[in-house]
Amino acid sequence: MSKVLDSFLHENLEDLKSKGLFNVIDPLESANGPIIKINGKELINLSSNNYLGLATDERLKEVAKEAIHTYGVGAGAVRTINGTLDLHVKLEEKLAEFKHTEAAIAYQSGFNCNMAAISAVMDKNDAILSDELNHASIIDGCRLSKAKIIRVNHSDMDDLRAKAKDAKESGLYNKIMVITDGVFSMDGDVANLPEIVKIAEEFDLITYVDDAHGSGVLGKGAGTVKHFGLSDKIDFQIGTLSKAIGVVGGYVAGKKELIEWLKVRSRPFLFSTALPPADVAAATKAIDILMESTELHDKLWDNANYFKQQLKERGFDIGHSETPITPVIIGDELKTQEFSKKLIDEGVYAKSIVFPTVPQGTGRVRNMPSAAHTKEMLDQAVAIYVKVAKDMGIIK
Ligand code: PMP
């Protein structure tokens, strides 16, 4: 290894480790369901984005097996050469129906969807108004586009209006986009989409909502945009197939011409192999299930409300989440990591989240109760929370 790389890696890794910022990865020896197995031990799992339990749903497994039987395990090419299977077309039609839009396009992940979509439309002559807590993939997508990035204070509508007005009146930009998460993944708060749409209409902004954590969760499952009744007002509805949908992939739903443009101009669609058949079939089935019934959605909310109430009553700081995302805020990074480690020792897998994923000094253990948990599992998890937190002096 080159000497300069060797010292760069060594010094930086040691620095992270000494500050408690080095993330240790524990491989699962089981499916990522409500109970997981790590190092031979069964744990109650509160760290997965598998909100509805669909990642292990038998109906999804069945269609995935059938798809493998018929189409094999790989799509074999990029979408624009001959990697587009009829399964991809069906998925995209289903996504458009699910999101109440004219059309949709699927990508290999939510992350690469943001990289793809923003840079296909925005360029160096444009500006993007981006909430300061937007997901890393949005930030990277904005950077890739080379547009001027204007950071907006988190969910601060006065700041957004003032910056939109300045950008518009400066006459410097051809296009201006406002971009936000639908649900913010670290705190569980919901974007003020009605106000964002008003500001967008006033200044002719392109609207872009990444609803990775809202789909399957808000709007009776259809997402944050539907929750606010704004399906015809948002230009880009982004989603992931990896969280509530339980599989993998990302998508944009919107007007037909927008999707046509993305199909000819977004680079991961043109230059990276299409999603595998089993995943496409499973994701399509998941959306069918969500559109047919709100049973899983209702169970998710029932469990989430119950779990949050239990933690709150015991004196934990659970922030201001409006969704099932339940942070338990500890603050100090090392203490947060110690807390999470002790929870794991006692039988609850709730992973610590620290800087740079969240601002310094706001370390938290983030909990994701799901439709697949039973009340008994949640009660057991709360009892372990209380024991560990009392031992560490976090609660009285
Ligand atoms: N956008 C947001 C808001 C997310 O929370 C995530 C997942 N962490 C992504 C995009 C990336 O999605 P995926 O895991 O499908 O790449």
Automatic annotation (TrEMBL):
Cofactor(s) this protein requires: pyridoxal 5'-phosphate
CDD domains from the UniProt entry: KBL_like
E.C. numbers: 2.3.1.29
Enzyme class: transferase
Coiled coil start-end: none
Signal peptide: none
Keywords: Acyltransferase, Pyridoxal phosphate, Transferase
Entry-linked InterPro entries: Aminotrans_II_pyridoxalP_BS, Aminotransferase_I/II_large, AON_synthase_class-II, AONS_Archaea/Firmicutes, PyrdxlP-dep_Trfase, PyrdxlP-dep_Trfase_major, PyrdxlP-dep_Trfase_small
GO function terms (MF aspect): glycine C-acetyltransferase activity; pyridoxal phosphate binding
Keyword Transmembrane helix in record: no
Pfam families, per the entry: Aminotran_1_2
Domain Aminotransferase class I/classII large: 42-382
Family affiliation: Belongs to the class-II pyridoxal-phosphate-dependent aminotransferase family.
Known partners and oligomeric status: Homodimer.
Record protein name field: Glycine C-acetyltransferase
Source organism per UniProt: Fredinandcohnia quinoae
